[in-house]
Structure formats: C-alpha cells, structure tokens
C-alpha cells in the first residue's frame, strides 16, 4: 500500500509531514503532533486523521492502531476550511488551466472550476485555496467536459460549495462531492429533468431549478421548470417545491441562512410578468412583487440575498446595439417593498450578473460587444463604470464579494467562444481589478 502525504496548513510549520504504513513510531509521532496542535488554540486548528476526525478522536485512533499497518494522513485545518492539497507536483494547478466558475465559503476558502488547455476535453479540473487566493492547488478532476455555450452536449459549467466538505458541479449535469472535492459522483436529476439551470446550497439545504429541455436546446417544451430541495447530506430523494415556474432557458437562486429566493424571468421570454418567490424557512415559498415589471421590456435577471430579510434585485432589458437599461433595487423585508439602488441607464452591456458585499457595495459585470464592470459603493444610488473592454464580448461569470472590499470574478470563461478563463480580484470595493495568478 502506498504512503499518503499529509501537509500542515499552519504558516508556522515549515515543511510537510509524511506518514506511510503505520508503525508504532509513526503512530506515536502522530500523537505528538496532535499534542502540539492542541497547544495552538489561538490558531483554531484541528487535526484531520483519515476521514477528518477532530483531535480527541484522532488521539484515540492513533493510539489504537499502533503497529497495525493502517495508513494515516494527518493535517491541521484552518478554521472553516478543508485540508489543503498535498504539496507534490500532482497537486499543482495544471499548466494552461482556464477558469469557468468560482465559489467561496469564506474570504479564505474557495474553489475554481475550469480546464487545462493541454488536457483532455472530457475532463474538468477543480483548484482550491485556503489562504484567500495566495496559493492554489489542484483538488480534483471530474470526468465531464465544460460544454460550449450554444453547442449542446453534457458536462458541467458551474461550481458551488456549501461547506468545506460538500459541493456541487452542475449545469447542465449534476455532480456532488462529500469529501472536499477529492471525488465527485454523478447524480440523476429528479422529475425527469434534463439539465440544471440554477443551484444554491448552504450548510443544511441544497436547492436547484431543473429544466425538461436539454442543454442548448432553447425552450423546447411547454412543461414548467421544477424547483427541488433536499438536505445537504441526505441520501434520500429530492422534494419538489410547489411553485409556478413557466418554461425558460435560465433561472436564478440565492440563499442567505434559511432565506431562499427563486427567479424565473418571463418579461424577456413571453412578455408576461416575472416570477419571484421568497422563503424565510427554506420550505414554504410565497410570491413577491417585481419592481422591474413596472417598465416595458425590462426583466428581473437576479435576486441576491444579503441577510435574513435583505434582498437586492438586478433589472435589465430594452436592449439596443451593445447596450441595455440596467438598474437595481434593495429590500429589507424579503422583497415585499423596495427602494431604488440607482440606475446604470442605457449602458454598455446586455448580459449581466450582480454581487453585493456584506456592507451593501454592489458590482455588476455586464457584456455584449465588450466587457464592462459597474460599481455602486456605500449603499448609495450612483453607479460608475470602472472597466470597459472592447474585447468583442468575452464576458464574465460569478462576480462574488467575499468581504466588504474583496470580490472575485471570472473573466472570459472557457464556455464562451475562445474563452481565456482568467480570474480577477478587487480589494478596494471594485474601484480597480487585477488578474490573479493561479
């Protein structure tokens, strides 16, 4: 049986510690390291032994298997994070890695889904960080491609982690990891669904919107979309949520604690009113008014849950040559009433996505004949364009605030034409953005 490497995550530890087959000496060394870690309470570190046991159980396991030949992998975990990847060459970010989706569970712990240009097209790679993006390592590979927009096919384009252990790769397919990304398993879609349009998860529940139409087939049916939920770690069946979601080729989900918001934009599809549902307990959903619908040809693109009762909306529509009308709203009562968060006017960019910081700063990434970034700082109504690229519309994906001033975004995701798959970060509330080396 091969030895497995184990790496200490603490900055104070200068080198990795590797254990092979368990001998008495090695097991005792594990116990010594556990005792050492126990003295570092301020670091909030805990040890992971084999499948991730905290220190008390780690000590019992180590003592029990002295000389039995059991293999251990021991590594402290930074609070809230998952064990860092091994430091060998196999864990390095693949050469030519290009990003498509990014997800974070804290300001320091995040993952990126993408693919290596010199690798197989039938494989998708996931890289991760536990130090806020200072370093990245290969975490896993999924035997699924990243399908190109408009070309059909199967695979995954998006990634969302709910905890350090549980995450989902999806759109159009669905894959789940229960071990921090080490392995992903394909999951069948409920209700005879053909693709996942949206997915969001927290530490307790996961929600997704499923379409009866296959990827890149447009609106192929009069059958409605389906909203489904299940316990994050449950092995049971998905539960259908009885809300009306007319057929569409896009949808949106957002969570904050037990509050859930579901968007099915209809204004730009059928001309009818958009659908927005809210739940404060994650189970019972109620319809909410959509302020975007007061204007002709303006649709609700996105709802962003900002607190237990807070939700912000992004409206977009009436497109022209490379431009569309875009404006935002804020609500403090789960979408029952709104106040304006200002307008970007008839501005550059038609497709768009929004992120909101814990302090209310907004950023909208939009694209059409170019790629543009708009920001609203200080919970005011004034918007300014901080990025304007004449790049032919390479686009963005997953703009995500992780703190009051730090946000991330994927520029030119690889599922778009000739995608570059670059990652950008801001540390000053969107005033400036810089590429990140992975």
Report on the architecture of this protein.
By secondary structure, the protein is mainly beta. The chain folds into two domains: 4-77, no CATH class; 89-435, Methylamine Dehydrogenase, Chain H, CATH 2.130.10. 6% of the residues lie in helices and 39% in strands. It has helices at residues 24-38, 55-64; strands at residues 4-6, 17-19, 46-49, 74-77, 97-104, 110-116, 124-129, 137-142, 158-161, 167-170, 174-177, 185-186, 195-201, 205-211, 226-231, 239-241, 252-256, 259-264, 275-279, 286-287, 298-305, 311-317, 323-331, 339-348, 351-356, 362-367, 371-376, 384-389, 396-401, 407-411, 422-426, 434-435. The strands form nine sheets. A four-stranded antiparallel β-sheet has the order 5-6-7-8, with no helix packed on it. The protein has a four-stranded antiparallel β-sheet with strand order 9-10-11-12, with no helix packed on it. Strands 13-14-15-16 form a four-stranded antiparallel β-sheet, with no helix packed on it. α1 (24-38) runs antiparallel to α2 (55-64). 48% of the residues are buried. The model is unreliable at 1-31 and 33-88 (pLDDT under 50).
């Amino acid at each position: 049986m091969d030895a497995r490497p184990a790496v200490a995550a603490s900055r104070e530890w200068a080198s990795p510690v590797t254990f092979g087959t368990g001998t008495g000496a090695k097991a005792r060394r594990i116990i010594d390291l556990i005792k050492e870690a126990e003295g570092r309470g301020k670091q909030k570190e805990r040890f992971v032994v084999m499948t991730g046991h905290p220190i008390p159980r780690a000590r019992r396991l180590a003592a029990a298997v002295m000389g039995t030949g059991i293999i251990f992998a021991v590594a402290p975990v930074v609070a809230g994070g998952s064990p860092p990847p091994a430091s060998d060459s196999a864990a390095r970010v693949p050469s030519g890695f290009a990003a498509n989706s990014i997800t974070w569970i804290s300001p320091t712990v995040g993952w990126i889904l993408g693919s290596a240009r010199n690798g197989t097209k039938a494989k998708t790679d996931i890289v991760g960080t536990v130090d806020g993006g200072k370093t990245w390592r290969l975490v896993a590979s999924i035997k699924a491609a990243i399908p190109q927009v408009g070309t059909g096919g199967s695979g995954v384009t998006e990634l969302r982690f709910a905890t350090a252990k549980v995450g989902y790769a999806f759109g159009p397919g669905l894959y789940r990891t229960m071990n921090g990304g080490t392995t992903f398993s394909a999951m069948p879609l409920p209700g005879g669904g053909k693709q996942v349009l949206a997915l969001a998860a927290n530490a307790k529940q996961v929600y997704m919107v499923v379409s009866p139409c296959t990827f890149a087939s447009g609106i192929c049916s009069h059958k409605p979309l389906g909203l489904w939920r299940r316990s994050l770690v449950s092995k049971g069946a998905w539960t259908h949520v009885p809300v009306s979601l007319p057929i569409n080729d896009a949808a949106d989900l957002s969570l904050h604690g037990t509050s859930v918001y579901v968007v099915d934009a209809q204004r730009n599809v059928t001309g009818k009113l958009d659908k927005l549902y809210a739940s404060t307990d994650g189970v019972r959903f109620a319809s909410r008014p959509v302020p975007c619908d007061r204007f002709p040809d303006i649709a609700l693109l996105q709802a962003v849950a900002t607190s237990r009762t807070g939700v912000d909306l992004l409206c977009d529509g009436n497109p022209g040559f490379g431009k569309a009308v875009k404006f935002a709203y804020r609500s403090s009562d789960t979408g029952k009433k709104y106040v304006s968060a200002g307008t970007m006017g008839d501005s550059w960019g038609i497709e768009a996505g929004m992120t909101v910081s814990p302090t209310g700063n907004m950023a909208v990434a939009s694209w059409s004949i170019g790629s543009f970034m708009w920001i609203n700082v200080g919970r005011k109504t004034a918007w300014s364009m901080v990025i304007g690229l004449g790049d032919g519309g390479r686009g963005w994906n997953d703009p995500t605030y992780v703190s009051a001033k730090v946000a991330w975004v994927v520029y030119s995701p690889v599922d778009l034409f000739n995608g570059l798959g670059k990652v950008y970060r801001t540390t000053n509330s969107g005033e400036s953005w810089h590429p990140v080396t992975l």
